[in-house]
């Protein structure tokens, strides 16, 4: 059976065939959990909030207008659900202004590193980013969302999203550069 687009499943659910929502959950569960985990930094809370996000999406499915992609709408629900949870727990976000970014970060080159190690380094570096920056990088580079879609998910202005994405990218380069220096020192 050929996979259908999100609107097909949404229409099925809205017409009373609620079991079709499982296709939506299956398609988006990894990214929803990933966003929740990065924002909440706790696996159990992330699982709970990912589930809560799908419940909210299911209950609000009738209000989905289709002016944005369904995935963008779902990510916005997830992001807001997690932010609300962090506010309840009074956790504070790390400001991007608190981190010094070296000028050497621009010169980093990953071409000499075997591809399997490259993926490991990038994953480790991403884990070191603050949750808001991680979410931006994840949405832009891995989910291939546009800046406008990211603004819809995060509530940021386009200029603020671009600045934060730029800072996150520079910080990621700095982190990778430090990791590679450490790795080189352990080899030598």
Give keywords.
188 residues, mainly alpha, Rna Polymerase Sigma Factor, Chain: A, Arc Repressor Mutant, subunit A, 2 domains, 8 helices, elongated, sigma factor, RNA_pol_sigma_r2
In short:
With 188 residues, the chain is mainly alpha-helical. The chain is 68% helix and 0% strand.
Describe this structure in words.
The protein is mainly α. It folds into two domains: 6-88, Rna Polymerase Sigma Factor, Chain: A (Orthogonal Bundle); 96-187, Winged helix-like DNA-binding domain superfamily/Winged helix DNA-binding domain (Arc Repressor Mutant, subunit A, Orthogonal Bundle), CATH 1.10.10. Helix content is 68%, strand content 0%. The chain is built from eight helices and no strands. The protein has helices at residues 6-14, 21-40, 43-59, 70-88, 115-127, 131-142, 147-154, 158-187. Helix 2 crosses helix 4, helix 4 runs parallel beside helix 7 and helix 6 crosses helix 8 (158-187). The longest helix has 30 residues, at 158-187. The chain starts with 5 loop residues before the first helix and ends with a helix. Mean pLDDT is 82; it is low at 91-108. InterPro entries: RNA_pol_sigma-70-like (IPR039425), RNA_pol_sigma-70_dom (IPR014284), RNA_pol_sigma70_r2 (IPR007627), RNA_pol_sigma70_r4_t2 (IPR013249), RNA_pol_sigma_r2 (IPR013325), RNA_pol_sigma_r3/r4-like (IPR013324), WH-like_DNA-bd_sf (IPR036388). This is RNA polymerase sigma-70 factor, ECF subfamily. Pfam families: Sigma70_r2 (PF04542), Sigma70_r4_2 (PF08281). Belongs to the sigma-70 factor family. ECF subfamily. GO terms for molecular function: DNA binding; sigma factor activity.
């Amino acid at each position: 059976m050929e996979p259908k687009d999100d609107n097909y499943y949404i229409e099925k659910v809205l017409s009373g065939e609620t079991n079709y929502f499982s296709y939506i959950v299956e398609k988006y569960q990894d990214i929803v959990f990933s966003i929740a985990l990065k924002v909440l930094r706790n696996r159990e809370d992330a699982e709970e909030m990912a589930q809560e996000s799908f419940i909210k999406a299911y209950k609000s499915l009738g209000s989905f207008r289709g002016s944005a992609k369904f995935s963008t709408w779902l990510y916005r629900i997830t992001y807001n659900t997690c932010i609300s949870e962090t506010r309840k727990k009074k956790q504070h976000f790390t400001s991007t202004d608190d981190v010094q970014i070296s000028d050497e970060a621009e010169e980093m080159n990953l071409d000499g590193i075997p591809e399997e190690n490259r993926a490991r380094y990038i994953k480790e570096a991403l884990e070191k980013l603050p949750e808001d920056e991680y979410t931006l990088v994840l949405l832009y580079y891995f989910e291939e969302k546009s800046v406008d879609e990211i603004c819809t998910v995060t509530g940021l202005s386009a200029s603020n999203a671009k600045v934060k994405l730029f800072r996150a990218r520079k910080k990621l380069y700095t982190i990778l550069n430090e990791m590679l220096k450490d790795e080189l020192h352990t080899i030598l």
